[in-house]
Amino acid sequence: MERFKTLKDHVYDFIAEEIREGKLLPGQRISENDICNELEISRTPVREALIQLAAEGIIENTSRKGFTIKTITVKEITELYTVIGALDATAAKLACNNLTKQDYADMSFYIESIDLAIKSENFEMYHKQQIAFHQIYIQKCGNKTLIDFIETAKNKLISKIYTDTAEGNAVEVLLAINEEHREILKFLKAKDEEGVFKYIAERHWVPIYTNADIIL
Q: CB–CB of 150/86 below 8 Å?
């Protein structure tokens, strides 16, 4: 069950979506006044959301520029993948015996939806559907502290850009990643705790696509 969202949480989500959609770019200054006017709210929840984003390393706060969108390096992405892979794999392992037939059906639905989103090059929908896929087992892991750590770590990879690269075009790369989702589901259905842990940590969250700016 999701926790109640405060006004600060809604502002946080709004800013995150602006970053994700490329409306706020790395190095760009965030205007508190613009957000207040856009959402028709006071400055306090906006300031609280910005402070949280800065604490999570998504934005930066400097005396000269105020709050700006942080530029993330390939090295930082690689390091985050290692951490997220271990956390995500642990959640899957813990969830193995908690998942239901409905959970499996929902995950299968998201996998098929992801394929459709990729083939139509609707990358924003791809992003939302793959989050939904992972959230099913993450929410069933039974460890709230772990869930919070995963959310914080993944938020650092909030900017989603999909471009053609040497590894192949974005559609081909994302379809290959979605095949990995199918493998994860197989491990979960088999209740293979060690198998799903190893696959997610050592295969699914290996940053072989960082040059493509593709985040799983």
A: no
Number of residues assigned to the chain: 216
CA distance 189 to 113: 19
State whether residue 69 is helix, strand or coil.
strand
Task: Kindly give, in sequence order, each residue whose CB lies less than 8 Å from that of residue 181, ignoring residues fewer than 6 positions away.
Answer: 107, 110, 111, 114, 130, 133
Q: What are the CA-CA distances from residue 82 to residues 40, 75, 120, 170, 199 (Å)?
A: 40, 11, 30, 22, 13
pTM: 0.78
Query: How far is CA 135 from its chain centroid?
Result: 10
* pLDDT digit string (tens) for the chain, length 216 residues: 455 789 999 999 899 888 877 788 888 899 999 999 999 999 999 999 999 999 888 889 887 788 998 887 888 888 889 999 999 999 999 999 999 999 999 999 999 999 999 999 898 889 889 999 999 999 999 999 999 999 888 877 776 554 444 445 788 889 999 999 999 999 999 999 999 999 999 999 986 554 444 444
